[in-house]
Amino acid sequence: MIEYLIAIMITAFGAALIDTALGMCYGTILTPVLLILGYPPQVVVPTVLFSQLVVDIVGGATHTRVKNFTRKDVKTALLVAIPATTFVAFGAFSNLTMPKNITIIYIGLLVSFLGFLLIIGKKFKRSARGLVGISALAGFNKGFMGGGFGPVIVSGQIVLNHEVRPAVSIGDIAEIPVCLVGLLSFLILGGISFMDIYLLVTIPAAIASIIGPLITAKLGNTEYAEKVVGFLTLILGLAVFFGVKA
């Protein structure tokens, strides 16, 4: 039992560190680990949403302090947050009512495609409409499976010609209302009850979220930052897709 608790805390710390550094992987890493350890999906997704909310608040404050996120990024953050927050409720409803395989396969394909575009250096014209569409998909993903938000938001922004540092910080900050609405949706639908697992995950994750943005500030100034995000995104997408197919 002690080994399981330590494994959960280490996983939460590592997932939050990667998430606040690269804008992705928190739910994508933590969700399957908790499922493997025997927690049901109805407990796992709210746990991820609750701890992610704390991670995003702490990480967002640190991103702002080290200037990964500045005043000029507020408009983009709103274009991400509003549609994502709107669609997270649909995701939460789907989590409680629909089979998961079809949507998880779609998430795997979408994330893999975005990662591939980053690796080959393909960029599109910056578009508010494109960003809104990507954000809506990411919000649905978050409510449905607790993950799949960061890889879509961060890689989507970069494909649409946004720089790495603000893309990562915007992903974390815009996710705050998404997690909040997702939690409220589960509460209203009767799919949430507070448990010790919430604190067990949240405390180490919050500590890691102070460190992650410092890595973003360093990584975002390098030539290979987009490739790093691209490879990680592609690997995540393929892992989700083939994991489900298997």
Describe the 3D structure:
The protein has 246 residues and is mostly helical. It has one domain (2-245). The chain has helices at residues 2-22, 26-36, 41-65, 74-97, 101-119, 128-145, 150-159, 164-188, 196-219, 225-245. α5 (101-119) runs antiparallel to α10 and α7 (150-159) packs across α10 (225-245). The longest helix has 25 residues, at 41-65. The relative contact order is 0.23. The model has no long low-confidence stretch (mean pLDDT 84).
Structural features:
single chain, mainly alpha, globular
List the helices and strands and how they pair.
Blueprint: H1 2-22, H2 26-36, H3 41-65, H4 74-97, H5 101-119, H6 128-145, H7 150-159, H8 164-188, H9 196-219, H10 225-245
Quick overview of this protein structure:
This protein has 246 residues and is mostly helical.
Q: Structurally, how many domains make up the residues?
A: 1
Give the helix tally.
Answer: 10
Instruction: Give the N-to-C terminal Cα separation.
Output: 29 Å
Mean pLDDT: 84
Ranges where pLDDT stays below 50 over 5 or more residues in a row are none
Main sheet makeup = none
Shape: globular
Structural class: mainly alpha
The helical percent reads over 70%
User: Which value, in Å, is the CA radius of gyration?
Assistant: 16 Å
Give the tally of β-strands.
0
Assess the beta-strand content as a share of residues: under 5%
Order of helices and strands: HHHHHHHHHH
